[in-house]
């Protein structure tokens, strides 16, 4: 009998490389970092008790797995193995990522049938954009991450990035694609990046806590309102790199309209960035 | 993905007045905010390809041994080569460098993103970091 795949949770998290570096160098108790990692603890505890069969990580590459010869707006990895990239100082000492090609190819076909024409990555090295969120979820993976991973890539580096509305719609199509997978598997989905930050220009160092607070609230209660924001509004309010928050909308779109917030936390600065985490339970609330 | 050496003919000097970080050539104008759009990426393609090559330790060593020759190999425009040799980080951005690519050179020099932030905003690294720790800069 055919099974049913189900998204059990969604995790939104920043992917700042220095978060991974702080973990890799044992600095999580350092006064400049402690509050961030203390803020992760409740989410990590809950996630350890809700391990999915497979995870989908929506992320962007940063000049490591792909360069500017080809700039796919959306992409999906279909490999069974993704090596951890050398970003210029040797690869992070974390496990390589195991893929799930069957699920990848199912998602690809379903999404193309819904007119989301993703670029296919048969080979891909994954950078901090993908591995830092895995570390936020699982600080001590040992020899392997908790489950196989399907990477979904989004161009957030070169203008024009996809619109927030398109990302949200892709997420909704992704949710339908997952539910149509005829295997009895549980799925965790990670939306990564943000929160507000800008790395270059006279406005470098820009952070907007009011915007971030609004985003953290509405990603839970009213994602459609976030999907209505224009590219210009996002760059103005969240910074030229903060626009990567659109990737959270792909995660959120794949989830139910009503989700239960498990935990959220906001911290700054992680390197030049405001760092946020938000964890949502996608299963229908059980009667008390 | 491999980073092949560029095969196009050497590029001419980039015409016109230097770009300020507020003039993107694109539709967006957010003050103090470089927009890495299609025209910027076209302008910076060779520079960014060279910076991408620093993923390999062997290339990092070859660059360090003769920076100008390495820039020539990637057929950078003269201003781009000069910006690289001078470590003129603002010029690299203005000449089409993407911050994620430019940062690879900064890392080779042992420079942090906070150092670059200080350069872009006319502050020392310490001053820039202090502003971040105070809640970030407002636009």
From TrEMBL, chain A:
Molecular-function annotations in GO: ferrous iron binding; oxidoreductase activity, acting on single donors with incorporation of molecular oxygen, incorporation of two atoms of oxygen
Domain Extradiol ring-cleavage dioxygenase class III enzyme subunit B, chain residue ranges per copy: 12-273
Alphabetic keyword roster: Dioxygenase, Oxidoreductase
SUPFAM superfamilies xrefs: LigB-like
UniProt cross-references to InterPro entries, sorted A to Z: Xdiol_dOase_suB
Family matches, as Gene3D superfamilies: LigB-like
NCBIfam families: PRK13364.1 (NF009901), PRK13365.1 (NF009902), PRK13366.1 (NF009903)
Listed name of the protein: Protocatechuate 4,5-dioxygenase beta subunit
Biological source species: Blastococcus saxobsidens
UniProtKB/TrEMBL annotation, chain B:
Classification via InterPro entries: LigA_sf (IPR036622), PCA_LigA (IPR014159), Xdiol_dOase_LigA (IPR011986)
Start and end residues of each stretch annotated as Disordered: 1-32
Annotated Pfam families: LigA
Source organism superkingdom: Bacteria
Keywords, ordered alphabetically: Dioxygenase, Oxidoreductase
GO molecular function: dioxygenase activity
Protein name: Protocatechuate 4,5-dioxygenase alpha subunit
């Amino acid at each position: 009998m055919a099974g049913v795949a189900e998204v059990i949770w969604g995790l939104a998290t920043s992917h700042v490389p220095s978060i991974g570096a702080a973990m890799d160098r044992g600095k999580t108790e350092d006064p400049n970092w402690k509050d961030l990692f203390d803020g992760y603890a409740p989410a990590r505890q809950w996630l350890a008790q809700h391990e999915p069969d497979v995870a989908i990580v929506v992320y962007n590459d940063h000049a490591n797995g792909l360069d500017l010869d080809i700039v796919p707006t959306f992409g999906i990895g279909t490999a069974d193995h993704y090596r951890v990239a050398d970003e210029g100082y040797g690869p992070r000492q974390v496990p390589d990522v195991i893929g799930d090609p069957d699920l990848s190819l199912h998602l690809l076909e379903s999404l193309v049938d819904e007119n989301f024409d993703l670029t296919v990555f048969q080979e891909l090295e994954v950078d901090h954009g993908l591995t830092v969120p895995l570390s936020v979820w699982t600080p001590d993976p040992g020899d392997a991450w908790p489950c196989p991973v399907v990477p979904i890539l989004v161009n957030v580096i070169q203008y024009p990035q996809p619109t927030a509305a398109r990302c949200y719609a892709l997420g909704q199509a992704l949710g339908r694609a997952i539910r149509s997978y005829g295997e009895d598997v549980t799925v965790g989905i990670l939306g990564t990046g943000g929160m507000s930050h800008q790395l270059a220009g006279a406005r470098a160092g820009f952070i907007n806590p009011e915007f971030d607070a609004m985003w953290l609230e509405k990603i839970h209660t009213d994602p459609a309102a976030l999907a209505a924001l224009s590219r210009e509004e996002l760059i103005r309010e969240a910074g030229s790199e903060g626009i990567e928050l659109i990737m959270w909308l792909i995660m959120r779109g794949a989830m139910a309209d009503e989700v239960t917030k498990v935990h959220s936390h906001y911290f700054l600065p992680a390197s030049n960035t405001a760092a946020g985490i938000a964890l949502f339970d996608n299963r229908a609330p059980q009667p008390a | 993905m491999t980073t092949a050496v560029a095969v196009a003919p050497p590029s001419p000097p980039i015409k016109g007045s230097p770009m300020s970080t507020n003039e993107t050539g694109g539709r967006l104008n957010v003050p103090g905010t470089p927009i890495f759009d299609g025209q910027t990426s076209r302008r910076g393609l060779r520079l960014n390809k060279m910076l991408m090559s620093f993923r390999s330790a062997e290339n990092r060593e070859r660059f360090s041994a003769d920076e100008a020759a390495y820039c020539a190999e990637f057929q950078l425009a003269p201003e781009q080569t000069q910006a690289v040799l001078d470590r003129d980080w603002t010029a690299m951005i203005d000449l089409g460098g993407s911050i994620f690519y430019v940062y690879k050179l900064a890392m080779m020099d042992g420079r942090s993103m906070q150092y670059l932030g200080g350069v872009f905003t006319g502050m020392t690294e310490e001053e820039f970091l202090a502003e971040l720790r105070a809640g970030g800069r407002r636009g």
